[in-house]
Amino acid sequence: MPTTLSHTMLRALLAGLLVATALATTALTPKALAQNTPTPQITTHSDAQQTVSEYRLNGKLYAIRVVPKSGQAYFLYDADGDGNYQRRDADSVPVPEWVQRE
To answer: For the chain, what percent of residues have pLDDT higher than 70?
Structure first.
């Protein structure tokens, strides 16, 4: 015996399928996210007191990570490209927009 669906149930089912299809086509997989994330060039040097890593993208220095021999690591970060570096106590910093424009 065939099953019949009311118009309301059919509309709800179709709406659900449309939403699921939209989400599936716009969702970014981890691989896609990794491809969209720019990879900076990191240059590191050390001395007796600290290790310093310079983060560049498109030749532009936007962050400096300082790891003291004693104490917590921190970043010096230029968020807007004005050359004014602010201290950020964080594990990482994003590549700012001004660096990505090229």
So the answer is: 64
C-beta separation of 62 from 77 below 8 A: yes
Alpha-carbon dihedral of residues 91, 97, 99, 100, nearest 10 degrees?
110
User: Across all residues in the chain, what is the average pLDDT?
Assistant: 79
**Could you tell me whether strands 50-57 and 41-46 are parallel, antiparallel, or unpaired per DSSP bridges?**
antiparallel
Note the pTM of the prediction, 2 decimals.
0.64
Q: Dig out the tokens for 40 from the structure.
A: 């900076």
Strand order in the sheet with 50-57: 41-46, 50-57, 60-68, 74-77, 86-88
